[in-house]
Design brief:
single chain; alpha/beta; UDP-N-acetylmuramoyl-L-alanine:D-glutamate ligase; two-stranded antiparallel sheet; 21% strand
Length: 277
């Protein structure tokens, strides 16, 4: 047997919630099921995600630098880097430095700029954090904002209804600062949820799926994790977006059929077999 096999690896920077599926508790099994090793960098620990009425929380900012320094000593490398929710301006700076230190020629950087939704920034997201996130996205190869975040990053006024040419212009602005691939998610169009898939110097593609139920925690984490694993595995970007959108729809549908309460997120574990087809 050959000893030359090297498994693909992705470093995932995000928080960890003990209950309620989101962030690292989704990324680790999704990425692993797609035959890619997942190396987490936890930014904070929650007893449960913040969609519940109360939670215990510990910030891990002070631990992130020595944690990363030990990886430097081990001389580890990654085929992909995912940046998820970052809870402070300092964490954004730490992630920027991590990318500078660990990005190699072959490394794909995927940034999910989790800043807000439904036309508003999250209450904890300060103007300083918004400014630093605008700098961080310049390091992305792939950027996965929702329509609210795309507006924030481009200083575009948010509205509920969009023409497709307007969304394409926003994607062009985002791509012009660095990322060669942009997918703007969660565009509401009547009975559909639409994603714009934008690749530099290619025709943009809109990928739509029928709406099912209401929003559930963790769907964005599934989406970004699948896009990242496919990226390091060499899957076509547009095909990857289609696959992720289809898988999320199936997960939501399955969760509704099982009667799973919305705060608990989506039941994806029963459907992981679909990721290896």
């Amino acid at each position: 047997m050959s000893n030359n096999y090297t498994q693909k690896k992705i470093a995932v920077i995000n928080d960890l919630a003990g209950y309620g599926k989101c962030a690292l508790t989704i990324s680790i099994p999704i990425i692993s099921s797609m035959k890619v090793a997942c190396s987490p960098i936890p930014t904070s620990i929650f007893s449960n995600h913040t969609g519940y009425p109360n939670f215990h929380f510990r910030d891990l900012t002070e631990d992130m630098v020595p944690y990363i320094e030990n990886w430097k000593k081990l001389n580890v490398s990654f085929d992909g880097i995912i940046s998820g929710y970052l809870g402070s301006a300092q964490q954004i700076e730490i992630v920027a430095n991590f990318i500078k230190d660990f990005k190699k020629e072959h490394t794909c950087v995927i940034i999910d700029p989790i800043m807000g939704d439904h036309g508003k920034t999250y209450s904890a997201y300060t103007p300083e954090m918004c400014s630093k996130m605008k700098e961080l996205v310049k390091y992305a190869d792939v950027l996965t904002p929702n329509i609210t975040e795309a507006c924030i990053l481009t200083d575009t006024p948010y509205k509920k209804s969009w023409q497709r040419k307007e969304i394409i212009e926003i994607a062009k602005k985002l791509s012009s600062v660095g990322p060669s691939k942009v997918v703007i998610t969660g565009i509401n169009q009547k009975t559909y949820i639409t994603n714009l898939c934008f690749v530099k110097e290619e025709e943009p593609v809109f990928i739509s799926t029928h709406k099912i139920g209401t929003g559930r925690h963790g769907t964005g984490d599934i989406f970004t994790s699948m896009i990242a694993a496919d990226a390091v595995n060499g899957v076509d970007f547009k095909e990857s977006v289609r696959k992720a959108a289809h898988f999320i729809k199936k997960c939501i549908q399955h969760s509704i059929e099982l009667g799973v309460p919305e705060p608990e997120g989506v039941v994806f574990e029963d459907l992981l077999y679909m990721l290896n087809k």
